Amino acid sequence: MPTAYLAGYPPNLTEPVARLLEQGRLGEALRKKYPEAHAVRTDRALYDYVQDLRGEFLRNAPQPSKIVFDGKLQSVGRALGTHTRVARVQGGKLKTKHEIRIAAVFREAPPEFLRMIVAHELAHLKEAEHDKAFYQLCRRIEPDYHQLEFDLRVYLCHLATGGEGLWPAMSGLRHPA
Ligand SMILES: [Zn+2]
Question: In the chain, how many domains are there?
């Protein structure tokens, strides 16, 4: 059991996951809980999706200069999304550019997982650290944030043990997030 993804969670949460994994039923359980894939498949669609949420929850936050899916981010590593601030001098003023990169694993995922990671990266527009204020903001954007992060980590366990992607791109039949 690749517990690294679930480190820090209590046994009453991780043991049922380990059992399902042993029985080869973890993928099935995840698909049952999250039956739908979202339809945000391109960088253009991701840009619109992120800007809509930003408009709803963080209207006064800085404008990201770049919003993309990034296939180079470790899909099963620590960094699922990244947020970088690049300070540049522009017209005599110091300007900070914000770039949001979302790991490619979220391109073929349920809408809940996408919303969770986008909430995380949007929260970084205001809060740099993973502190209390940061997670409060995550929960304001997505009230189920913590459960979704756990379930995403469960999915990473599934992938890390050789499980197949559970929400592959289908042509045209899926609904937008
Ligand atoms: Zn973060």
Answer: 1
pLDDT in tens, 111-166: 999 999 999 999 999 998 889 999 999 999 999 999 999 999 999 989 989 999 99
Distance 128 CA to ligand 1 centre (A): 8
CA of 32 to the centre of ligand 1 (A): 28
All residues at 6 or more sequence positions from 24 whose CB lies less than 8 Å from its CB, including other chains: none
CATH at 118: 3.30.2010.10
Judge whether 177 lies within some domain: no
| Centroid of ligand 1 to alpha carbon of 31 (angstroms) | 26
Q: Which residues contact residue 150 at a Cβ distance below 8 angstroms, ignoring those fewer than 6 apart?
A: 6, 9, 13
This model's pTM is above 0.90 = no
